[in-house]
Amino acid sequence: MNAITRRHFFGRAATGLGAAALWSLAGETAEAKGGLPGLPHFAPRAKRVIYLFQSGGPSQMELFDYKPRLKDFQGTDLPESIRQGQRLTQMSSAQASFPVVPSKFAFAQHGQSGAWVSELMPHTAKVADDLTFVKSTYTDAINHDPAVTFLQTGSQIAGRPSMGSWVVYGLGSETENLPAFVVMISPGSGGGGQPLYDRLWGAGFLPSRYQGVKFRSVGDPVLYLSNPEGFSGEQRRDYLDALAKLNQGTMDEFGDPEITTRIAQYEMAFRMQSSVPDLVDFSRESAATIESYGPDARKPGTYAYNCLLARRLAERGVRFIQLYHRDWDHHSGLPKGLPKMCLQTDQPTAALVADLKQRGMLDDTLVIWGGEFGRTVYCQGRLTPDDYGRDHHPRCFTVWMAGGGIKPGITLGATDDYCYNITDRPVHVYDLQATILNCLGVDHTRLTFKFKGRHFRLTDVGGNAVKEILRS
In this predicted model, what pLDDT tens digit does every residue of 29-50 receive, in sequence order? Predict the structure, then answer.
């Protein structure tokens, strides 16, 4: 069995995990040691990430990519010279025509940066000078699941490690009492939306210790956090000590690092029994702070509550905080559905940015807002004077970033008058991922893991950090 242990060790050591495993075997977790040797590769600008993922594909034309000329094209068919034979989804490919529809919502410029922001986002408009808008983001996927999977894992095919897992694998954690990677999900205005699978924050082929921990909105934030009735804290401590001895015996026999992971996870759960109640206790937050996040800030599971909780997690050293907000998928009924989504998210999002800035945390916290793709300029289904919908559009969409090494008050990239094709500075999903890692002091080409004979990375074989928006 010692040979098996050696194979585990030397196989992992080829990509740096061997050192992390060695610390685990010695009783020191990789998290406590701060990740892999040699990382960060250069001085990081950000210590942590808060990713506000708007699942479903928010319409860039209604929110941030102002297209005044669309009023001149209203109701006309999308020219073939613009579409250029680009593929459509099955939901609109059979349409006899593709009538162009402008946004029903007004835009205005805000702040010294003059950023264009829709009337649907009045609170975001107030912090526009802290944001950098990338209007030329594009993806390879045209449907929800592969597009979300691509943004979160670097592959349209399920099974790769999530971005948060890559970050924690490389950089470790700054806290011993909370997970390094936390995930929260809030429902949209209709309570539905596209499904979000646990694999989106999974560790893939990385050791399972690096997967995200999903906080629940009902009961204990994490399952089995509370002791069963009649089972004291002392008894739980004795139980875990006995279980650790059994697991260590199995580890000594088989040398499987996943056993050490299990021991560490049990210990983390024990420490969370004291850290999590303090985390979710908002009693020491000022009334003004809670009110700034909006009327839902005290309701567990809402986007507003999760945004406030994200700031508290960031304060406590959590490395990667992922918020998913569902139901941005407006194939029809957009004029009624989209304002409801913005009402849920606009104020809490802006409050999070302002709150981080007021506390001196924005400089080393990278905040990202965006979905998996954009929406089409043409109407899906029947266009009426009062109603329209938009189909999926991977060719261009808007993402904004703030803090953590990003130059504020910049708008990067541009799209054509139809908001259909990129005309300036395309930013691929891999470029976005490379930029996020760069803010954390990581060269995306050097954070790899050998699996099935190949060295994998988050950005696969592409991607370049977007230098124009990075602080020097």
Answer: 333 456 999 999 999 999 999 9
